[in-house]
Each structure stands twice: as structure tokens, then as C-alpha cells.
């Protein structure tokens, strides 16, 4: 029986100067790199395949399979690009990982690049996290000086260069093809697929793009074995992941557990919902995943179960809201976010998110009428599946799910000519006042 | 434009297999040198990369971190995405607007005696939700804020007092920060903690309860026998250590 929490990626976060090479190596860091370099690249891919590691950036695509799509007979250089543009509302796992242990990611980058036979790799990190970027830059320098990067790594004959690339503030660049355009020095707008990045990605060359947590999981798989990784989690969602609890719980924070843990278990670990209040709604994997309520407290948080319950595991960004929170206000704010972050490339998203925000703002102010709810659903219907990328789809998730569970609350705004909630009651300052 | 500045722009372009990939960090460097994205900076990037100034402007106007007007020495962001807004970000933002007498994305005027200027912007989710409500100063984390702490923060910044990030070093100026984003380290990586308290909550519980990931597999396709034995021993040891520590703590 696996333990409730299984710190692997987070295990060294409390170590003295955890971000330094000395600390990382002192705990067995870069041992997995030696093992990988002693293997054939295809054997590394096979190990990751056998582990059943699935993408930790939200979509859950099998990582090893993604690597095996790289056409090795393509004469162009191969590239590995790490998506560290963590921006999905509620998601806060990659940033603390890179701050506390950048070498975990870097070791993963080297092993993964070796597997796909890339000689240049990039970490695309959002620009708004200065100290994380400092830590990455420093760790890359340390890795070069120690011979983990550069030419003839560990005497293996394998060469790799790694560039830390800071973005400049655009949620859309978390979409993998928009990220590639951005990394090529352009506006971050998604590309039509096919061709998929595995065939024509960065500079129209074969490219693997993986989330930072996915790549950071690779050294532990190589070090401990595929079966070790697959022994955790559920039948089709194996391994561990970082679950990020935020909002109205007693102890928000990062909880690393096997996939399949439930929110009820996590809230228990977090000391419960804040005192005197009850869970109202939550996101299983960021704002782009349909809302859940207390009804789904026992849904195993794995890809299949969350999907079957009508949402998505996403990035395991568990944003918890209690009964003081107005769901209409919450959804309007997310909608304004999507409107602001829409890249403008396709009409359903560019125009649609604008109309969604207008309609919702009117409802939140208690104006309009009940038919506006159907109008909203119709607008969502014209965006979902019709937008160029997943940003448009994501924009509809909070709206359709909140109307499904909280239609009465929308109607209450109309009946009372405005929001029936006191916004100050939901703040953390209220909590401090209440418990002082 | 100085020779050194232009050389740095070229150096950034040279880090990439194709020079245009350097454009985003080059624009960060322009902001570092000039305090915003200027016409001269746009033209310099265009010249170095062999593309038109319109193409560079098209990129510069797409990303919110690039400013076409000067910002303060300290650019203060308040997260007002849903989670932080609900937890108090909205109240903090309106409090700061009133306190600084500015609107969104504006710089507060320098008063007599001020050592530095402050600009204010509401920002989107900055990946620190377990520290809500979150503020950023020059893209450094200021976790768990209140209206009172926010007012004090901007007052200290304007007065020229040293302000430290809750998870990072003393806060450098916006132009100095932009230089790091352009890929020129400032030597401050070792300052601040490895992780803030919320980042360690789950790990702390696991330590207390003696929970850990399973030991390495006893058999498998990877590694030598010695490696496996050593790895298992190490895993068992760390488990035992944490259990012992949990006992001691009790």
C-alpha cells in the first residue's frame, strides 16, 4: 500500500540551500544521468514509456510516446523545449519546483534530450518570476561548470546546450505551438496542426515540448525504474504529481501524492475548510477545467475519474472556494482573464470571450434577464470546439459548469438587482479577524 | 546607443540557433537600458535581426511585460485573478489605487522627499496561489499580503528603504530586474529561501507521518545490481530517518 503523500520532486525542497548543485548532488542528484548515458537513447524512451508517465501540464499525453514520435531519420536538428510558462489560474507547482530545485529539472532536460537525440534544449519560463529565473540561470551555469552540460557530458560523447529563455507576459504562450512562435521571436499565436511539433516544431524541426513537472519526473524514473513509478497511482494514471491547494483551506500549499488521491483526503491533510465555513465549489485543474462542488469530493483525482465526472485533471490546481464566495463574481473574473489573454488569431475566441465578459458583467450587476443565461450557453456553444486552440474551450468551462450547478445564484443576482454576497467576507483578512 | 549596449543585444541574438529567437530577451534588455520599449530600441533590434521595425513593434505590443510608457523604479503588481481577488486582492488593489492616487498601469507622481517612484498594475495569476493574496514588485514575490502590508510596502519603496521579497532577495529596480530577464545574471540567486512555508506544507506532513514514495524497484530493466541495492538502501534509510525524526518531534 502506497503512502498517502509521496514526496519525490518536493523531497529536497526543505534541504539547506536546496537550489545549489552541491545540495542536489549530495542527495544523489545526477546519478540518474549516468545511468541514462549508459543506456541506448531508445532504451531511455522505452523506460519512460513503461513508466506510463503522462504529461503533467494538463493534457496527460503519454510522455514516452511523444518522444517516440520524433522522426530520427529527419536530417534537421532535434529540439527539446520545456514549457515552464506556468500561468493557468490556480497552478503553482512548477514555479516552486524551479525555485527550490532547478537541478531536478535540468537533470531531466539532459536525460530527455539524450533520449530524443537533441543537442539544444530550451527552458521557456514565464518572465514574471524573477527569482526563479535567477535560480535557473545559476543552476545552468553550475551544470556547465560541472560537466553536466556542454560537450562530451560525463565522458559519454554526448553534447547538449541549454538556454533559459524568459517570456514576456502572455498566458497563450503556455499553448505549445504558441510557445514555439514566441520562442522564435514572434507574437505568441498558436499554429495549425498538423504538422505536429514532433515533425515540424521549433525552426520547422522535430521538437518535443514537455511541461516542467513531466521533465522533472524523468530522473526519478530512470533512477528508480519504470515499475517503481508505475506502482504509484491508479490503473491508467500512474505515478505521483504535485497537487496545489489554494483558497479557503486552513493550510494551502503543495501536496505531492500518487494520482488518484481525492479532494476529501487532501482537504483533511490541509486541516479542513476554513473554520465556520463549507466547501462551495472548486477547480480540479485550473480555471479551464469545469467546476466541481462537494458532490465530487470523493472523485479520484486521476485523468479518467475526473474526466468521467465531467471535468479534467488539468494541472491539479485545486482552487477551493467556500460559501462566502460569489460564483458569478468568480466566473466573471476568469472570463475577463480569457478575454484579456485571447491572442486574437481566431474569431470565436477573440469575439466570443469579449461577448461572454459583456453578458456576464451585466448579469453580475443584476441587469439583464434570465434569458441571458441561455444566451451565455449559446455563446459558449459557439466557442467550444470552434476556437483555434484550447484557450477558447477553457473560457467556456467555468461558465457552463457554474450555470449547471449554480443557476439559482445567477437568478438571485437578477432578483436582487446585484450581488447578494459581501466580498469582504471571502477575504483572508476576515479569517484573521475571526480567529484572532 | 552605446557600443556596449549594442554588443549585448548582439550577444543575446547569438545565444540561439536562429537570431530572431533572441527578440524577447533583447526587448527586455532595451527596457533595462531605456526604461521602456523605445523607438530607438525597436529599430536597433530590427537592424540586428534583419527584420522590419514594424515586425519588432508587433511583437513588443503583444506581451504585457513590455511597456511603451515609463514605469516606476518599482513596478507593483496586485493579482486580481479570481483566487487572489476573492482572498483579498481586489481590496488590496483598490486600497493601493486610493493610497497612491493612481489608476491601473499608472505611475504615482514623485512627492517631495521620495527616493523612488512606484507604478501600479493589476496582474493575472502569477503561480503563487498558495500564498494568496499575492503581490509582485519588479516580478519578485510578495506573499500573503493585506491592505495594511501593501500600503506599508509602497511607502517603504517610495522612501528608499530596503525591501526584501518574501521569497527572494532585496528588491532591485525595475530596470535592473529587466537585465536579468534579458539573461545577464546579477549574482543574487543564492539569496532568499529555497521554498516558502506553503510550498513545504505537504512535505512537512509527510515527514511527520513517516510517509514517502516506495523504495526503488528490486528488479527491473535499468541500472546495475549494485545501483539497485544502493538505491534501495538509500530509500529505506531516508524513510527510517524521517520516521525517527517524527518520533523525536513527538
Q: How does this model look, in words?
A:
The complex is a heterodimer of chains A (436) and B (250). Chain A is of the alpha/beta class. Chain A has 18 helices and eight strands. Chain A has helices spanning 21-26, 31-37, 41-51, 63-68, 94-100, 102-116, 130-145, 176-183, 197-200, 212-224, 226-230, 263-269, 303-308, 327-341, 347-364, 371-383, 390-415, 428-435, and strands at residues 79-84, 120-125, 161-166, 207-211, 240-247, 253-258, 279-283, 317-322. The radius of gyration of chain A is 22 Å and the shape is globular. The two termini of chain A are 41 Å apart. Chain B has three domains: 3-60, Orthogonal Bundle (Arc Repressor Mutant, subunit A), CATH 1.10.10; 74-181, 3-Layer(aba) Sandwich (Glutaredoxin); 200-249, no CATH class. Chain B has helices spanning 3-13, 23-34, 39-49, 53-60, 82-100, 147-159, 174-181, 201-209, 225-249; strands at residues 74-79, 106-107, 118-123, 135-137, 140-142. Chain B has a five-stranded mixed sheet with strand order 2-3-1-4-5. In chain B, strand 4 and strand 5 form a beta hairpin. Residues 219-229 and 231-250 of chain B have low confidence and may be disordered. Chains A and B meet through helix 3, helix 5, helix 7, strand 3 and helix 10 of A and helix 2, helix 5, helix 7, helix 8 and helix 9 of B.
- The CATH superfamily of the largest domain in chain A bears the name NADH-ubiquinone oxidoreductase 51kDa subunit
Q: Name the overall outline of chain B.
A: globular
How far apart the termini of chain A lie comes to: 41 Å
Mean pLDDT rating of chain B: 91
CATH class descriptor name of the largest domain in chain B: Alpha Beta
CATH architecture of the largest domain in chain B: 3-Layer(aba) Sandwich
Q: CATH topology of the largest domain in chain A, anyone? A: Rossmann fold
Put simply, the count of helices of chain A is 18
CATH topology call of the largest domain in chain B: Glutaredoxin
- Which sequence of SSEs, written as H and E, runs from N to C of chain B? HHHHEHEEEEHHHH
How many distinct beta strands of chain A? 8
Global structural class of chain A: alpha/beta
Beta content of chain B comes to: 5-15%
Discrete helix count of chain B = 9
- Element-by-element helix/strand order of chain A: HHHHEHHEHEHHEHHEEHEHEHHHHH
Poorly predicted tracts of residues of chain A: none
